Amino acid sequence: MSAITEAIGRYSTSLLNLIDAGLAAVKANRDTGSRIAQDVLSSFIVGTGGVQTVGASGDIPSVDLGTSANVYLHFKLPYLLSDTVSFRLNFKGYSYGESKIIECDVVGAIRNGGFVVGGASGTHTVSGYTSASGKPMIRMLFPSLYYSTLSVTSYCQTDTKKVVRGQLQGRASLSSTIDF
Amino acid sequence: MSLQTALTRMTNAVKARLAQYLSLKNVIGAENVKGTMYRNVFSGFISSFGTGTGPGLGEGDLALLPTLANDSNVYLHFRLPMNTDIHSRMFYLNFKGYSFGTGVTFDIKVGGYCYQATGQLLNTNVLNANLTTAVYKDANNNIVVSILFPSSYFTTIELESMIVGNGVAMRHGDVACIVSKNSAALFPKYTG
After folding, report:
1. How many other CB atoms are found less than 10 A from the CB of residue A124?
2. Considering only CB atoms, which chain A residues are within 8 Å of B90?
3. Cβ contact A101:B92 at 8 Å
4. ipTM of this model?
5. Interchain proximity A42–B33, CB inside 8 Å
6. Which residues of chain B have a CB within 8 Å of the CB of A24?
């Protein structure tokens, strides 16, 4: 009897592992075939210095800038200037320091060796630039980053070129242009 | 252990794992991470209150409706899972839907902070409200969001929530709703 129950125990473990792997694959592939990817980046920033203190969790590293006011969040896009792609990024969240919902969009295209931002709208000033090392960058200005939470959704003309989780890198800085 | 016990244990483990994953269908992002969006927090439909001869007709989370005289100027009050006597929680909510009777689609975002230390509702913001939307503390200190529908006839609403700041995940069942013609509602104190 104990041999059978042991066998059942081993089978149970294998079955649970199989379920975990299968469902992880489903989650990873949820955006496959879609031109939209959600949860591309998520970030919570306590502050970047000053009385608001310093701290962050999620995809944007914590940094001490000496103040949490008038801070840019810079996002490096995973495209080369040699690519041909058009995209939209949507930012959602809540800035407690600003008492404000975050809801803004930026659209852009990379073609003919250059990066152009077609337009931006919403609650925060969003714009684009090319970094010194030739990477297409998006920047977003926060009057206050204190206790701010952000989630990014991406859209792309081509489902295989959309920005997905892990591909967007973010940094906070007082400068309007950075390179990383 | 007996064969039966082993099999039961295995079955329960598999069922629990599947239930855990099925609940993740409503989680966009990783569980309990700030920035993660929870879908389907509240989902319902109001058909009509008719002429008030009986309870209104509705579906989903709005299946049980009161008796109201008509479909005009109806408030939906949503009690959030937080109370200023107990919780310090920031919140982000997205109310979406279509009100045929009013003739609008809506996509309203609400943020704020239920702050226990001073018993206040702080730093609220309502964005894109093409319907009159208010965030308030009711008399039992629950945090409530109300949306006024000039007509609630054939109105569908869906609520999503993001974990922001020091807030927590909201899931289906956490938000209660009172439908009435009054601009303020009173809910039993939320203590969960």
Report:
1. 20
2. 94, 96, 147, 149
3. yes
4. 0.91
5. yes
6. none
